[in-house]
Amino acid sequence: MEATYIPEALVVVTLQGMVVGFSFEIFFRFLFAKNEPRRRVRILKCLMGLSMGLKLLLFLAMNCALGLTACSVVGRLGDLLYHVSMVFGNAVLLDRVATIVPSHLTKRFEIAHYIILAIRSAIGIIDAAIVTVAAADNLSCVYQDNIAWGPVYTFYDTFTDFYVTLCITTILIMHVRKVKNVHMATNINLFIAIGATNILRTIVLMISNLASAVLILTEERQAVIMIAWPVINLLFILLVGYDTDIARLIRKAQRPRSHHNNSSRTGLTPHPDGCENYSSDKMHSNQSLPVVSPHPTENIYQLQPTTHDPLSRSSPIDPETGQSSPSIVCDEQMFKDLPV
Questions:
Q1: Which CATH number fits domain 7-253: 1.10.10.10, 1.20.1070.10, 3.30.1340.30, 3.30.70.1660?
Q2: Which stretches does UniProt call biased (Basic residues) (predicted)?
Q3: Cα(first)–Cα(last) distance of the chain, in Å?
Q4: Rg for the chain (alpha carbons), in Å?
Q5: Would the pTM of this model clear 0.90, i.e. be above it?
């Protein structure tokens, strides 16, 4: 006997299959990614894509005649994988904040972020335990979210994304002010684009999460909810999976014109190896300068004396005159970070 499908079920299966494709694309993209140098972010995005893809595969399997026992196992496991994916996705967003906060606040932010993720994990475990998964007359699975608990994680995810955008926007504003205070040429439009991108992501995810919560609270038909969820999952996967390393963009924004402008402003002449010659009468050797860390995960707000920095070259003594020759400090060392 040939199976028949109602249009709503066909739409659900199509959307779920689309999310599976994007989820595994993100998994394999960052499994072998070279454009994301931070291993931690790569791992988080891989796990986010993998868990979301597996979750949708299990939900696709629920359309088959599994029976009550199998439906309960598959449904709860799929629900748990969804929450695992959301935790990893939120961890990516929170990590973006941790990389751009002032260094003296990094530990506090990291502790707060671990607490946020722990609460989200607990919410997911509870939801997987109380969700209702039944079997229809044809032995296919019927998934029903808890009306009281379902909106909890949707509102919590909205809060997390709003917090991330608020932090990033605030830090960017502070960063632009610091750039202007030290008269450093930079690409302000890029800062605006970073802020606008985060605000847009928050608005889109907030609308989708609120729509999901409203559908659950109003006890909308399950078919409508099952259509909405893949769309929400797809938005989350795309917006988080293809997010940008903000710290790297900020450093890039500081470089384009800073080399030329600072050379003309301070009377520096280019050095053949890409660094600058600092005359001793223009710049005192023990003056503190923004220093770039050799580690890409280093905080962007860091200040160290150039006399103690391993990237600086010591001023050699001329044996004839007894005077020190100009010090050499690399351009990246000067402009990668800003003083607090």
A1: 1.20.1070.10
A2: 253-262
A3: 72
A4: 26
A5: no
Helices 222-241, 39-61: inter-axial angle, 10-degree rounding:
160
Q: Which residue type sits at 203?
A: I
| Closest to 9 in 3D by CA, of 230, 233, 234 | 230
| Rounded distance between C-alpha atoms, residue 289 and residue 336, angstroms | 10
Look at residue 50 and give its three-state secondary structure: helix
In angstroms, the Cα distances linking 19 to 15, 42, 55, 144 are 6, 19, 10, 20
90-146 pLDDT, tens digit each: 999 898 888 888 888 889 999 999 999 999 999 999 999 999 888 888 888 888 888
Contacts of 267 (CB under 8 A, 6+ apart): 279, 282
Query: b/e string for 196-217 if b means 16 or more Cβ within 10 A?
Result: ebbeebbebbbebbeebbebbe
Of the CA atoms within 13 Å of residue 189, those in its CB half-sphere come to: 1
Residue range 46-92, pLDDT digits in tens:
999 999 999 999 999 988 888 888 999 999 999 999 999 999 999 99
State how far Cα 143 lies from the chain centre. 31
Could you give the CA distance from residue 47 to residue 45 in angstroms, rounded to a whole number?
5
Q: Rounded to whole angstroms, how far apart are CA atoms 82 and 233?
A: 9
Instruction: Please give the Cα distance from 27 to 48 (Å, whole number).
Output: 8
Q: What DSSP element (H or E) covers 132?
A: strand 132-135
In the chain, where the domains are located: 7-253, 262-313+324-335
Going from the C-alpha of 222 to that of each of 81, 145, 267, 321, the distances in angstroms are 20, 9, 70, 87
